[in-house]
Amino acid sequence: MSAFDDLLAFQRQTEALSSVAERLGWDQETVMPRGATEQRAEEMAAMEAVLHERRNDPRIGEWLDQAEAADDEDQRILDLVARDFRRAALVPSRLATEIARQTSLAQGIWAEARANDAPEDFLPVLNDILMLKREEAAALANGGDLYDALLDDYEPGATQAEISALFDAMRPRLVALREDVLGSEHQPAPLQGHFAQETQLRLARTCATAFGYDWTRGRMDIAVHPFSSGRWQDSRITTRVVETDPFNCLYSTIHEVGHSSYEQGIDSDYAFTPLGRGVSMGAHESQSRIYENQIGRSRAFTGWLYQRMSDAFDGLSVSDAEAFYATVNRVTPGYIRTEADEVQYNLHIMLRFDLERDLISGRLDTGDLVEAWNARFLKDFGVAVDRPANGVLQDVHWAVGLFGYFPTYALGNVYAGCLNRAMQAAVPDLGQALLQGDASPAVEWLRENMQRHGGLFAPRDLIEQATGEPVSEAPLLDYLEAKFQDIYRL
């Protein structure tokens, strides 16, 4: 065997073990007994120790020195393995293992604190995780910017300076649109009523099927914080149910189907290689957000969904499909990021981006986090946070150490805006299919132009290849202004 073959065989086992570790995480957030938290933390730590040792195996360096790429795909594999090898070599095994253990323990503590509105029960654990992540960032940065080192895990090549400039460009138009919308005389009515859990879940499955979710390679469960997990032949989704708000369940499901379909859509030849997963979290979010918003909240798809929901719940409080479309897209100053409308969603991300940068840099202590969050939320949204579960405790990300992850949500929205403009031009009859509950023309376009490539191209290169244009925030902002000016009769 050649050095490249040896490296690929070794990498195949590493990828398989990584999938097993991911499955442990899925189990912990869905069906694991509550009393098993400490045991699972040790299991996760043990898996991370094994994975870290493999990623840091000195034979990888030898194989990389000797391996020859036969084509561009081989070269991309070598580049990705080399990147992971360099980063793994910078992080001590002790640190990687301890982060895995502490973040596994913290998930349960966060969930209990959120349920009890008790940030004081979670903040000491968060501080421990923050100290570990600062240490990891310092190791990875090797003298450079700490936050950029963490961000690179989720969006390779991105920097906080670039993202800050992007947010500065987006904020004025988003704030102006919000003010116009909230000041409009025409305000869509909210959906009212009681919506039984089992009926919501049946509809959620119907929506997932409409978006082409492959149930032979996936499943749906309930979680405190919806997420997707897995790849290749086993890519799972979760959702949550609020019996006064069926949109929470339905659109969480469609969102996670976008993530999962990306993994299901990757070329099967890339399985168990570095190409066999989404290239970045920004790219991943582009799929979940375009499924949820540009497709799932479109006038055409909501027209189909209106009839399905009317039948399932024996009528709705809104009068017709057009009113339902407006209700689905209502702009309200809510607390929860995952429930935020398209106009305000990115403002939620900007808040978290600034706070977590301050946490990593040391400008903000965890003891002052609740006050800082509440003050910033009041400033940005004009509403005082009523309880910690609607504020600093609402997201699981910091509990599991995902510092640097939040800005990829906004990047995903920007990428989705670019993809949507190209897709609408390429599939002019898409609306007619969506009226019938058939999202397959959109899914097929996304699969062909983006999903199948997996990790073959760098994130921005992938979007630019799919759209034929440079990445820009303009398509997203143009789309939002056109859509919401229409809905709110501006």
Q: What CATH architecture of the largest domain do you see?
A: Orthogonal Bundle
Instruction: Give the uncertain stretches in residue-range form.
Output: none
Apparent shape:
globular
Strand order of the largest sheet: 1-3-2
The main pleated sheet reads as:
3 strands, mixed
Please, how many domains? 2
Give the overall average pLDDT: 97
Order of helices and strands: HHHHHHHHHEEEHHHHHHHHHHH
What share of residues is helical?
A: 55-70%
CATH class division of the largest domain: Mainly Alpha
Number of strands: 3
**What is the CA-CA span between the terminal residues?**
67 Å
Strand content: under 5%
Give the C-alpha Rg: 22 Å
CATH topology of the largest domain: Neurolysin, domain 3
Structural class per helix/strand content?
Answer: mainly alpha
List the total number of helices.
20
Provide the fold topology.
Elements: H1 3-30, H2 37-55, H3 58-66, H4 72-90, H5 93-116, H6 119-141, H7 146-154, H8 160-182, H9 197-210, E1 220-222, E2 228-231, E3 234-239, H10 246-265, H11 281-295, H12 299-312, H13 321-328, H14 342-361, H15 369-381, H16 407-426, H17 430-435, H18 440-449, H19 459-467, H20 474-487
Parallel strand pairs: 1-3
Antiparallel strand pairs: 2-3
Explained architecture:
The chain has 20 helices and three strands. The chain is mainly alpha-helical and 490 residues long. Strand 2 and strand 3 form a beta hairpin. The radius of gyration is 22 Å and the shape is globular. It starts with a helix and ends with a helix.
